[in-house]
Amino acid sequence: MKKELKDLQGLNMQELKDRADALRQELFSLRLQIRTSYVKDNSQFKKLRKDIARVLTVKTQKEAQEVNSGN
Predict the structure, then answer these.
(1) In 3-state terms, what secondary structure has residue 37?
(2) pLDDT above 80: residue 1
(3) Which of 19, 30, 36, 64 is deepest in the core (most CB within 10 A)?
(4) Hey, where are the domains in the chain?
């Protein structure tokens, strides 16, 4: 978990945006799968939502640092 957070903190803003978009696309695909067929692991929904939240949190922290360093 901490390693993943450190990896996210090492990314720039565009990479974080891309990662969030990819995770959202994966969540959408999973939702589509559950409507059309059987999904083995329902815990993937919670994991993906948490991963998206982590990425967005790091992105927000970086934005705040940029604003603070600009002042």
Answers:
(1) coil
(2) no
(3) 19
(4) 39-65
Mean pLDDT over each residue of the chain, to the nearest integer:
90
Site of tokens 């945006």:
17
Which pLDDT belongs to residue 45?
A: 94
Residue pair 31/66 in contact by the 8 Å Cβ criterion: no
pLDDT of 41 above 70: yes
Three-state secondary-structure class, residue 12 = coil
For 6, the 3-state DSSP assignment is helix
For 26, residues 6+ apart whose C-beta sits below 8 A from its C-beta are 48
- pLDDT, tens digit, 9 for 90 and up, residues 9-33: 888 999 999 999 999 999 999 999 9
Q: Name which of 21, 9, 6 is nearest 59 in CA terms.
A: 9
Give the CA dihedral 17, 21, 45, 10, nearest 10 degrees: -30
Report d(CA 19, CA 25) in Å as an integer. Answer: 10
